[in-house]
What we know:
Blueprint: H1 2-19, H2 22-31, H3 39-59, H4 62-84
Helix pairs in contact: 1-4, 2-4, 3-4
Amino acid sequence: MIDFIIKYIGFFAAFCTTFAFLPQAIKVYKTKSTKDISLYMFLIFTIGVLSWLIYGLIINDLPVILANAVTLILSFFILIYKLKFK
């Protein structure tokens, strides 16, 4: 029972931290503006998310894998817009 609860806390945390990026990605898409987003912060963040994804794959932890796969996509999207619309 405790493993079930721990796993779902992980899924809930993954959901919250991952989908926190969705409003920013939508705003960037609509406005085509990334002027207030730090390029270096997003580069470091994206590398960190990729590292977490690799870690999740190594330890075979589904919440870590799913959260970081989706976050990587959203982060990469914002990063591309940051580079494209300097």
